[in-house]
Amino acid sequence: MDTDYYLITNNKTMDRSGLKKKFQRLFNVMECAPDASDYESFEKKVELLNTVSEVENSSVAVFDMHRGKYAFLRSRFDAHLQYPLNDLFKKEPSYFMDLMPEKDLAFTIDTIKKTFSWLAEKEHEKRKEYKLVFEYHLSDPAGNLYSFLQQCVILEQDRLGNTWMVLILNDMLPGQTDSENLLRKVFHIPTGKIMLFNDDNSSASMLTARETEILGLLSQGYQSKEISQRLFISVNTVNNHRQHIIEKLNTENTHEAIRFAKSVGII
């Protein structure tokens, strides 16, 4: 475990500015060398990204690993957080880090560092096959915390195959997770297999095998009565499981539970 993350999670003193500098140093070792033609090619894709951001419920961002700042960002959370994020996307990540609790910041840095160190060992052509998913919080000016789920995949590589642009989707979670049990996983997209952080504790790991089975059936469109007949249990038992799933995943309804579960690979 990263030393800084250990100190924070054990209530030791840690300087926020030091954590931010540590994050910035990550890009010094993640070498990539895009040229002018690469940037010209990326600019042609911005219109498509704008279209995606209009139809997605998620906020969409692209992070430039070479320049260490956002190349694109469209936020849907300005009204909740009361910050003009869409006007500030050219800011470095440090702006958003100031909105994170320190434990979340240490967790995020530790997660990104370990993920990209792990990806660096993979063949260049295979790196786009993996997705990082993790939770974190942001604070509004009044100090209220909001829970988010971030999904990251490699969007562009330089001509040598090094990671250059990272596509980021952020979803606001309706429930409130605490900073002690934040979820993080790296998935192999073609198979859905968890590749990294498989032993981490999280709210998702609290689902029983039966609850996971029922959630999977719900995602396929089965109703409670149909599930009860398929699993040879009562409708009341199915509905009790549904309520437990919603409570454990900190969602407001079954639809949100299914969406969250698919994002983090539970189903």
Q: How many H/I helical runs?
A: 11
Query: Considering DSSP H and I runs of 4 or more, what fraction of the residues is helical?
Result: 40-55%
> What is the gyration radius calculated from CA atoms?
20 Å
Shape: globular
Based on the structure given, which CATH architecture of the largest domain is correct?
Answer: 2-Layer Sandwich
- Average predicted local confidence, pLDDT: 83
Let me know the largest β-sheet.
7 strands, antiparallel
The CATH superfamily of the largest domain appears as: PAS domain
Strand order, sheet with most strands: 2-1-5-4-3-6-7
CATH fold group of the largest domain: Beta-Lactamase
Listing every helix as H and every strand as E from the N terminus to the C terminus, the arrangement reads HHHHEEHHHEEEEEHHHH
Instruction: Tally the structural domains.
Output: 2
Structural class: alpha+beta
**Ends: how far apart?**
28 Å
Low-confidence stretches: none
Q: How many beta-strand elements? A: 7
- Name the beta content range: 15-25%
State the name of the first-level CATH class of the largest domain: Alpha Beta
Explain this structure:
This protein is α+β, with helices and mostly antiparallel strands and 267 residues long. The chain has two domains: 194 residues, PAS domain (Beta-Lactamase), CATH 3.30.450.20; 61 residues, Arc Repressor Mutant, subunit A (Orthogonal Bundle). 40% of the residues lie in helices and 21% in strands. It has eleven helices and seven strands. The protein has a seven-stranded antiparallel sheet with strand order 2-1-5-4-3-6-7, sandwiched between helices. Helix 8 packs across helix 11 and helix 9 packs across helix 10. The longest helix has 18 residues. The mean pLDDT is 83.
